[in-house]
Every structure is written in C-alpha cells, then in structure tokens.
Task: structure prediction
Amino acid sequence: MKLYHLSHIDLDGYGCQLITKKYFKEVNFYNSNYGNEITQKIEQILSDIEKDAKDKSTILITDLNLTMAQAEYLDNKVKNMDKDVELLLLDHHKTGRECAEKFEWYHLDESRCATKITYEYFSKKFSPDERLKKFSDVTNAIDIWLSKDRYFELGKVLLKLVSDAKEVNRVMFPKENNEYIFNMLENSYEFYDKNGANIALDNALHKLKKKFFKGFSKDDTLDNLVSKYVVELLSKKKDEMSIEYKGAKGILTYSISNVSVIGNDFLVKNPDFDFFMNINARRNVSLRGNGKVDVSIIASEIADGGGHANASGGVLKSYKDSFLYENIKKQVEDAIYKAENS
Result:
C-alpha cells in the first residue's frame, strides 16, 4: 500500500509528514497552502495514483480543512476510480465541521494540533516512538498557543525553523524541499532536553543549515553552499526546465532567491545555456546572461522591461500564478511564442 500525503506548509503541516515518514515505507509527499492550491494538489495526487502500478493506496490529508466543494470533488473522484483508494483526513480547524459531519473519512479534533492527532492515530495503529511523541508535544504547544506549556518557547523556534527554510524551492523541488525540512526537524531532537533548549536550538540554526548543505559540497558560506546545491538540482533538471527565445537557450526557474548568484553559477556550470530566467508570484521576471545574448532585449520583448545586457527584468502581465511548475512553464512559453510571432 502506498501513501499519498498532502499537508500544510507550516510546522504543523510538515510535522504531520515527519510522522508518516516514520511509519510508512512508500510515501509521496505534497504540500499546499489554502485556496486553489489545494485543488491543484488534489488533482496532482489523483493523476499520480492513476499512473502508479499499485492497485491499493491511501490519500491522507493533514492540517488542511477542505471546503465542501473540495471535499465533494475528492470524494466523488475517488469513488469513481478503478483502483482501491482509501481517503483519510486528520485536522483540527473548526472551519471543517460541516465536512466532518458529512464524510466518514474526515476526522476533526479541535483540541490538538494536526501533528499530535497524526502521531496518536498512527502510533496506536503501529507502535509508539518517544522522539516523535515529544516532537508532537512541542508542535502542539506552539500551534494551538499553549503559552504556559514548558515546550512553548521551543515551539517558537521550530516554527521559525520551518518558516525560514526557503532555500530549496518547494514548487520546483518538492521532494528535496521535504528532505531539507525533515532533516532540520530531525536534527532539532537533540536540543529538546537541554537546559535553555529554545536558546540552544536558536543559536544552532545556522549551523544546522550549513550541516545539511555541506553534505553536498565542501565548506563555504551558507549562500554559496545553497547556490551550489540549487545549481546542482537545476543542472539535473535542465532539459525539462529549458526554454528557447529566438534561438537562444535558457532555463526557467520559479521564485528563486538570490537570482544573481544562482543564475551566474548555473550559466558558468552549464555553458550550453545562454540565459537564466526567473519568475515569481508577483509576475516579476528576472533575467541573467553570460554574454551570449542580450537579456535586456528579451526582457523588453517579453515582459515590457529592460536593463543591462547580462542583467535585466520586467513584468509578465499575462501571468497567473500557479503551484505546479508545468503550468508556470507553459504560461511563459505561451508568452514567448506570442512575442516571437508578434
């Protein structure tokens, strides 16, 4: 049996997935914020299940309350699939009461955070784990705001740990993003029983980040280590992420931070590419070149922008933000086609 686990993008959401990582050998992780992203991720899961050779699977949703329309859509889709698919939702948001009353698979408990609900559900089904129990207690203290709880201040640091873990883009690299956050959370275990645990962990966060990225490169500044790691990921996926404009070959990224450093490092490592393009949720486009093509011309023709020959930007007005890289790339390719043929 394979688990398809969709969860929120905060500490509680990733915490639920840290639990299932322990108890299941085969798990596909998906993460979503609220709104249309949930629907897109549900569609992605259903598509992945259809493609999978396994006949039996479970869709688990945690720390996300579905709208009635989303719950009805998911329930109907699963019922009409040829495969044996079980539905299970574990959540604690009271806005899901109506769905919980209608669907047997929708389990709502407002008294605990989703991580604690998930841990207690699966530890009873399989076996207890003391480290995960303590982790769920820490997460519970901050997520439902138990300010008098002994783990409350430590929970604040874990909350920051997850919210600041943006070095690995979750849209382009969802698997690697999960691995990074899981690694950071698992490395936090050793601090829970220390005196002044919250301060000790807070002091160690920079070192924990470097420890992860140093596993893929020799020691350097954190920015350089992150750039090397991201460039390596991009280089492995460069064929599927490549775009072309009037014969020039580029790579399209989404919401990359530190575009100048990563863009330059990628072009140095991959001389077969002529430019580096990044777009973000605000429709802003950043372009970097390596002397082979004037990216200011690309910026002006595609995104009403401009700048320098090797560093330019603009705004792609037709772009509508998406949460799936394939959809993002298609929009940019459509804009390129329109610009080339105008």
